[in-house]
Amino acid sequence: MNTRPNLDNLADIRKIDQKRMYDLIYDFPLQLTEGAHLGFIADLNLKSFTPGSITLAGMGGSAIGGDLARSYLASELKIPFWICRNYNLPEFVNDKSLIFVTSYSGNTEETLSAYQEAKRRKAKIIAITSGGKLLEECKTFNYPFILLPKGLPPRAALGYSFTPILVTLSRLGLVSDKIKELEKTSKFLEENRNEYSLERKSGENPAKTLAINLFQKIPIIYSSTDYFDAVGYRWKGQLCENSKILAFNNYFPEFNHNELVGWKVLEHIRDRLVVIILQDKEDHPRIQRRMQIVKEIIEKEKVKVIEIKSEGEDLLCRIFCLIQLGDFTSFYLAILNRIDPTPVEVIDYLKNKLTT
Q: Is 204 a catalytic residue?
């Protein structure tokens, strides 16, 4: 018997969503312009500094803003941009490197380790945080920082972790000013979110419909590499953290040279799998062709494939429209799983065990 909750019963949804993740997802568009303001008002001491490379040190929800910035700026930024999700920095980091040290809590142990290494190598450090040990270090040693609002799960603070990076790189003269694009994207998302709102019924709500299609399934998300690799990764992370399910992602064209072969011996698991292909109008023509062929290959193995096309005129709008749909979908899937999307108890357990 199918006992999944009714996604149109607002009272039941509020009982499950005790920490109000829905409100954070719905209000997200404001973060894009508010985060830009935080980047503009921060005293970053950027005069006469031209970096030879950029590295962002962070983990989880605090690092995904860097991933998105790296992808979005790939065709404009003329120096390397590396994301470090580890205790140690890459060897090329030196006194001519710009290091974004980003930890929403300010207490992420891997990020604090990378910060200490950046400090020893005399790199140009800019912290992005809401407090904790990282903020204390910056105040003690006079490192510039961008102070974020407190009280959010890191994954729900994506706008705050993303836009200050764009603003900082613009202030350095490494990329053009992005404020118009950010304002346009924020307005686009404000208009678009009504399509995914609680009040919009399941049959007319793409996020609710997609969540129903993913219920009791293992999603595998595929996207192009150029600008949407971070978007696919964001989808995976949100489905894992909010919906509390396993999800996986990979990118065209790389997985066509290995993972694609794995779509064969599926007798015992094909009914549990569903593939999502994220598509954009500016995907490379050969990538578009690959997407079509891969869809046919997977469907021959009797696995459901869902194609999702980005919407919007500008690249930033198209990137964030897919993120918005993924975030809302992960919320509704959490409701179907009868679990509050906000707590991440197993991560808290791991952190506590690491301290003993």
A: no
